[in-house]
Design a protein that fits this description.
Layout lengths: L35 H15 L4 H10 L3 H4 L15 E6 L6 H11 L5 E5 H11 L1 H8 L4 E5 L6 H17 L2 E6 L17 H9 L2 E4 L17 H10 L6 E5 H9 L6 H5 L4 E7 L5 H16 L3 E6 L9 H4 L4 H16 L12
Parallel strand pairs: 1-4, 1-5, 2-3, 3-4, 6-7, 7-8
Bound molecules: adenosine-5'-diphosphate (ADP) and magnesium ion.
Adenosine-5'-diphosphate binds next to helix 4.
Length: 355
């Protein structure tokens, strides 16, 4: 299929906030720690989710108990259990150390239906479209909120997220989040973070920081690279990759990514099984680079097959002028994910459907 055959993607919605396909089946048991901090992080997170009395469990237990009136015994009001206050855990570390794996494992292990998993960017977007009051009311019913990739990119987000999270904690919600940046260093290099020191410090204070160190786990996996145009064409003809297969030229992809909010990229990729991307070249602007990073994040999360033609090392898709700047970690993470995606073999041959 081609770009003009794609349907307009829907905006993110409150329904279906769960881990993406790549992380849908992960568990604490499938996490193989490679570093002492990873053992500690796994144990702390496991204790955090298994040790909590979820409000929904409390409600079920209370409903099952006979009421004081039925049993004709007197119940002292102070014996009623106070609701557990909210709590926050912040997994902080480099990319590829398994933070998202652990986050999705926590989601899976939490024995409550009132749990939600989404990316930080999706969260900020949802608060924006719903308005703060409605977002707070909707999310206040959650026992557990899992937020992947906490990144304060602009001052507006800082205030919004601080207010929103304070309300979550007050409502008794447990929040687990992952980030490549320690909480107190959020915003640095991206905006005048010192003007928001108070807000950032208050955010940081509401989380227990759990460091996750170690080498990029993806280095252990087969590393892919750009293909030549001839190799890409041959793969496109012969490879039994999942359908529908989107065939797209580099400039066409960049146009597509510029035409919508990044929170819609997931909705685009929900429509395809594989992407054949022709003629990757270095990205001249930081804006295009951030859009491409986000697109690769979604390809990765959704386990879409990617094949691409280009030249040189993968990291060189980001121009030297900004590569090591404020978003350096995002660029490195993207190169790591690209290497994993491009190295992934296609499973058994599946019939390809032409739309
Ligand atoms: N210790 C581990 N045991 C098993 N799989 C791991 C481990 N660490 C990472 N992985 C796998 O490596 C990939 C990258 O991990 P991920 O959780 O995305 O890292 P991060 O979020 O820290 O960048 C995922 O496929 C994940 O399941
Ligand atoms: Mg991650």
């Amino acid at each position: 299929m081609t770009v003009d055959q794609l349907d307009p993607p829907p905006p993110p919605s409150l329904r279906d906030l769960r881990p993406p396909p790549r992380f849908a089946g992960v568990a604490f048991e499938t996490y193989a720690p490679q570093d002492p901090t990873q053992v500690a992080a796994r144990d702390r997170l496991q204790e955090f989710v298994l040790g909590r009395a979820w409000r929904h469990e409390e409600a079920t237990r209370r409903a099952a108990e006979p009421t004081a009136r039925q049993t004709r015994t007197l119940r002292w009001p102070w014996r009623r259990q106070a609701p557990q206050p909210g709590a926050g855990l912040y997994l902080d570390g480099g990319f590829g150390v398994g933070k998202t794996h652990l986050l999705a494992a926590a989601y899976a292990a939490a024995d409550t239906p009132a749990k939600r998993y989404l990316s930080f960017q999706e969260l900020v977007y949802l608060i924006g479209v719903m308005g703060m009051a409605r977002a707070q009311a909707e999310f206040a019913t959650s026992d557990l909120l899992c937020v992947d990739e906490f990144e304060l990119d602009d001052p507006g987000n800082t205030l919004i997220v601080k207010t929103f999270l304070a309300a979550c904690f007050a409502a008794g919600t447990a929040v687990v989040t992952t980030s490549n940046t320690p909480p107190a260093a959020q915003g640095q290099g991206r905006f005048n973070a010192s003007d928001f020191k108070r807000e950032i410090q208050s955010l940081a204070a509401s989380f227990e920081v759990v460091p996750v160190n170690g080498a990029d786990f993806r280095q252990r996996l087969k590393q892919g690279s750009w293909l030549s145009e001839a190799e890409l064409a041959a793969r496109q003809d012969r490879e039994g990759s999942p359908a529908p297969r989107l065939i797209v030229a580099w400039d066409e992809l960049l146009e597509l990514l510029r035409s919508m909010h990044p929170t819609r990229f997931g909705g685009v990729l929900a429509q395809v099984g594989s992407v054949y991307l022709h003629g990757v070249r270095p990205l001249a602007s930081q804006n295009d680079a951030l859009r491409f990073v986000h697109f690769v994040d979604k390809l990765y999360d959704r386990q879409v097959v990617l094949r691409a033609s280009g030249e040189g090392p993968l990291a060189d898709v980001f121009d030297a002028s900004y590569r090591e700047g404020a978003y350096a970690k995002k660029h490195h993470r993207c190169a790591s994910r690209l290497a994993e995606l491009l190295g992934e073999e296609v499973g058994e041959r599946r019939p390809s459907v032409t739309l």
